[in-house]
Amino acid sequence: MTEDGMTARIIDGKAYAAGLRGRIGDHVARLQKDHGLTPGLAVVLVGNDPASEVYVRNKGIATKEVGMNSFEFKLPADTSEEDLLAKVRELNADPSVHGILVQFPVPDQISQQKVIDTISPDKDVDGLHPVNAGRLASGLDGLVSCTPLGCLMLIKDVMADIAGKNAVVIGRSNLVGKPVAQLLLKENCTVTIAHSRTADLAKVAASADILVAAVGRAKMVKGDWVKPGAIVIDVGMNRIPAPEKGEGKTRLVGDVDFEAAKEVAGAITPVPGGVGPMTIACLLHNTLIAACRQAGIAAPEGL
Ligand SMILES: Nc1nc2c(c(=O)[nH]1)N[C@@H](CN(C=O)c1ccc(C(=O)N[C@@H](CCC(=O)O)C(=O)O)cc1)CN2
Ligand SMILES: [Mg+2]
């Protein structure tokens, strides 16, 4: 609850992402004017998963909107691992490509980890390569994965200085949980990483000034798991049946019971419209940073 006893501030990730894309667009225009450099992002989609097709299309549109070059590659669902890795190596060597992203999930015959390992760490705008994970853990400049970076930006928009706060991250994936925890540690939070084997998870969660839920289980975090006034960041994107919308229809919910938690939290992200839109904006952010570094130009800070 906010100080005046009202329900939580609803953190508008869609609006924040739009503002961030605007600032990125300004930097891209300046890069072109001052250095003749146009950042380029290559996105590779294997197969025709409908959700992935939408995300890839949206990435292409957003990339062009900020003035970057977008290179899209659609490979058939039966593409071999070696052929995909060969495509990645070709993009690693292409100087007009500053960022590379292979859309996940990839078909079963392809190892996601091998794909991640093959992308040049300097072009790894998803921030998933072990070198970038290591750089983050070591406090070195690297590329930070997009969803965690988006979470941190939203948290810092609510509270600029979070040093000394108790942060609890529920979930320990390489994609979200671990990098979010590292980012919060870098901001001098006291960080707990909780997970499915954590004893008395509800009590641990209720100790958090900042609670990040990234478990992938619909509405798992209940209202009484939230400390009054806490910042709650919901990374979950779970499709559940929605018979009220018609037979066979679904709706998207997070890992947090939003209706209950918003009565207790100080600020909370909705699903949809919270963390999700930040992912693509942060991808553009990372492509801009990667392009500057590859060209030996000072990368913008604190966008
Ligand atoms: N290589 C990657 N693959 C995937 C990633 C990723 O970051 N890198 N993330 C997801 C998919 N994704 C981007 O690729 C993505 C997912 C969701 C959203 C988003 O804006 N969600 C909306 C709701 C959308 C809906 O209604 O279905 C929201 O939360 O408001 C953006 C990007 C998996 N693959
Ligand atoms: Mg969201």
UniProtKB/TrEMBL annotation:
State the InterPro entries in the record: Aminoacid_DH-like_N_sf, NAD(P)-bd_dom_sf, THF_DH/CycHdrlase, THF_DH/CycHdrlase_cat_dom, THF_DH/CycHdrlase_CS, THF_DH/CycHdrlase_NAD-bd_dom
List the pathway annotation.
One-carbon metabolism; tetrahydrofolate interconversion
GO MF entries: methenyltetrahydrofolate cyclohydrolase activity; methylenetetrahydrofolate dehydrogenase (NADP+) activity
This enzyme catalyses: (6R)-5,10-methenyltetrahydrofolate + H2O = (6R)-10-formyltetrahydrofolate + H(+); (6R)-5,10-methylene-5,6,7,8-tetrahydrofolate + NADP(+) = (6R)-5,10-methenyltetrahydrofolate + NADPH
- For this chain's UniProt record, which GO biological process terms are given? L-histidine biosynthetic process; methionine biosynthetic process; purine nucleotide biosynthetic process; tetrahydrofolate interconversion
Q: Which residues form the Tetrahydrofolate dehydrogenase/cyclohydrolase catalytic domain?
A: 11-126
Q: What is its EC number?
A: 1.5.1.5, 3.5.4.9
User: What job does the chain carry out?
Assistant: Catalyzes the oxidation of 5,10-methylenetetrahydrofolate to 5,10-methenyltetrahydrofolate and then the hydrolysis of 5,10-methenyltetrahydrofolate to 10-formyltetrahydrofolate.
Q: How does it assemble?
A: Homodimer.
The protein depicted here goes by the name Bifunctional protein FolD
The organism that produces this protein has a lineage beginning with: Bacteria, Pseudomonadati, Pseudomonadota, Alphaproteobacteria, Hyphomicrobiales
